[in-house]
Amino acid sequence: MSSNRLEVVVVGSYVQDHVWLADRFPETGETLAANGFTTGPGGKGFNQAVACRRQDARVAFIGALGDDHLGAFARDFAAREALDARWQTCPTAPTAAASIAVDPRGANRILVNLAANLELEEAFVAAQADAFAQARVLLCQLENDLTAVRAALTLGGQHGLLRVLNPAPVHRDVDAALLEACDVITPNEHEFVQLLERLVGERVKSDDLGLLDQARLHALCRKLGVPTVVVTLGVAGCFVSHGEDTRGDEAPYYRVAAERVKAIDTVGAGDAFNGALAAALARNVDAAFKRKIRHANRVAALSTEKIGASIAMPTRADVVARFGEE
Prior knowledge:
The chain is α/β, with parallel strands linked by helices and 326 residues long. It is 34% helix and 21% strand. The chain has one domain (8-323): Ribokinase (UDP-N-acetylmuramoyl-L-alanine:D-glutamate ligase). The chain has helices at residues 44-54, 69-80, 122-126, 129-134, 146-158, 176-180, 189-200, 214-222, 269-283, 289-303, 316-323; strands at 8-11, 15-21, 36-42, 59-66, 84-90, 96-102, 108-113, 137-140, 162-165, 184-185, 228-232, 238-242, 253-256. Strands 5-4-1-8-9-10-11-12-13 form a 9-stranded mixed sheet, with helices on both faces. Strands 3-2-6-7 form a 4-stranded mixed sheet. Helix 1 (44-54) crosses helix 9 (269-283) and helix 9 runs antiparallel to helix 10. The mean pLDDT is 94.
């Protein structure tokens, strides 16, 4: 592979984050003074693309923006990150924006208007076929119109990419056919139980997942019909479940513990995990899947030690400095 060839294509959302730091979350009808405010780039897709790029992967990002000052900010930030950004400009929809409140424990509450992200068109995605033709891995989420997501997964399959879906947030129109187009899915515990209930009629409480024995959790994962399922469990780490192809792992299922850090802001930690996993899948093809999961865990953990989403994504040098080479 030539030195300038793309490795990962990310199709997803851009959201301008507006973050308030407070001692606690306000009650209904209460005006509460914040301790600080920041604004910066976010959105699951863009966060994941930046996380992937900062792990030294060569990344193309495909997304949609409004024709406004927030869109101009996004273009400038992407250029500074050396992302090959393919933007669909939407003249009738604004760039997406979110309001995020963060408490001293790093917990958060979020409101988001997806705006231009819902205008990303199937035809625009298809027009970026050159990026798919170069890459090894495709990474998608569910903050765009599902027709665009389906188009990306189809194109990824045609070009032989490893297709990774972070099914967040779980869209009301998600179906078995969408999951069947994926090689790896990475739901968190809440998304996992939603998928189980909607697609296979299995009801499990998200709070109970950490209490299930590994064989039972593996059996639940297998019901989704995806070759590899990675359930992220926050401070409890993650659980990996493989089908017939164990992707170089010795065991078909296992848990990986989270790394210990001093978290101050968990916004974007899941995106850090997904972006880092995509980078590891593209750059370390022959390594066991478990090694790639450990690396993704480390990137996610480090991302919580800074305020913000995209701007908080650690570099590969940051990861090596803290944890050493994998």
